[in-house]
Design goal:
Shape: globular
Helix content: 25-40%
CATH superfamily of the largest domain: HUPs
Strand content: 15-25%
CATH architecture of the largest domain: 3-Layer(aba) Sandwich
Largest sheet: 6 strands, parallel
CATH class of the largest domain: Alpha Beta
Number of domains: 2
Radius of gyration: 19 Å
Structural class: alpha/beta
Number of helices: 11
Order of helices and strands: EHEHEHEHHHEHEHHHEEEH
């Protein structure tokens, strides 16, 4: 496996692979601190692509001024070793100066699905996400890019960007990987203290509770959300809910009356880390 630290290096590796007969190039964009969730994306890419690149880059432009950019875990040696063990062909691990050189002045901004949830709580976040992902797509030129369903809004935004800008690749969305107690795997989980970690299981519990209420016939989104909020307040008192929302799976517009498929999404801020999660409720399953 090769590790590239410059744009020129990763482009050369991809070009050499294509000239050697590679038909399908896969990309798994990450910020490092790889865990089983990331490795599930890598395995999915390796399962259908001839050449797989993993980017490891803690992107400064998607962090707000009071967020955890400096504290974000960066175990690069462990990450590279994990990529080797999962059959990755190339790791792209640039420095910030490589991705954003002096004079950098361009931002990719997507309207619509960036507005609610994370977009409301973290102004400018998705501009940073879209800009760096667009750059990675241009640099690596993958045929397939793999993302996790845990970041449902991010995936929706990236799919919108790729479609609107006619980017010639397919976005593959892979299922959320969870711990035994249901907590969605995240690089930020390692930042949690023992008590915070124990309480963090309440996020998925709240989502499953909300799903059950909907399947039992509760159609007023406000009532479902209030029940989930009470559950979080009781089971995770160290956390503060930034939002709990029930939205349309495609537009991410807020739903008042639940009559078809929805996504329930939430974000909870603990003293040591902010966690997000979601669950999709497919109403067609209930009708069948």
């Amino acid at each position: 496996m090769n590790t590239a630290k410059t744009i020129a290096e990763i482009r050369r590796l991809v070009a050499d692979a294509r000239s050697g007969g590679v038909v399908c190039v896969g990309l798994v964009p990450t910020m490092g601190a790889l865990h089983k969730g990331h490795y599930s994306l890598i395995d999915a890419a390796c399962g259908e692509c001839d050449f797989v690149a993993v980017s490891i880059f803690v992107n400064p432009t998607q962090f707000g001024p009071n967020e955890d950019y400096r504290r974000y875990p960066r175990p690069i040696d462990d990450d590279v070793a994990g990529c080797v063990s999962h059959g990755v062909d190339a790791v792209f691990a640039p420095r910030a100066e490589e991705m954003y050189p002096d004079g950098f002045a361009t931002t990719v901004s997507v309207a619509g699905p960036t507005g609610p949830m994370e977009g409301r709580c973290r102004p400018g976040h998705f501009d940073g996400v879209c800009t760096v992902v667009a750059k990675l797509f241009n640099i690596v030129a993958p045929d397939v890019a793999c993302f996790g369903a845990k970041d449902y809004q991010q995936v929706t935004v990236i799919k919108r960007m790729a479609a609107d800008l006619d980017m010639p690749l397919r976005i593959k969305v892979c299922p959320t990987v969870r711990e035994a107690d249901g907590l969605a795997m995240s690089s930020r989980n390692v930042c949690l203290g023992d008590e915070e970690r124990a309480q963090a299981a309440a996020l998925y519990e709240s989502l499953r509770l909300s799903e059950r209420l909907i399947r039992e016939g509760l159609s007023r989104a406000e009532e479902v959300i209030e029940t989930a909020r009470r559950h979080l307040a009781e089971k995770a008192p160290l956390g503060k809910a930034d939002y709990i929302e029930i939205v349309d799976p495609d537009s991410l517009e807020t739903v008042d009356t639940i009559e078809k498929d929805v996504v329930i999404a939430l974000a909870v801020k603990f003293p040591s880390a902010r966690l997000i999660d979601n669950i999709r409720v497919d109403m067609t399953e209930q009708r069948e």
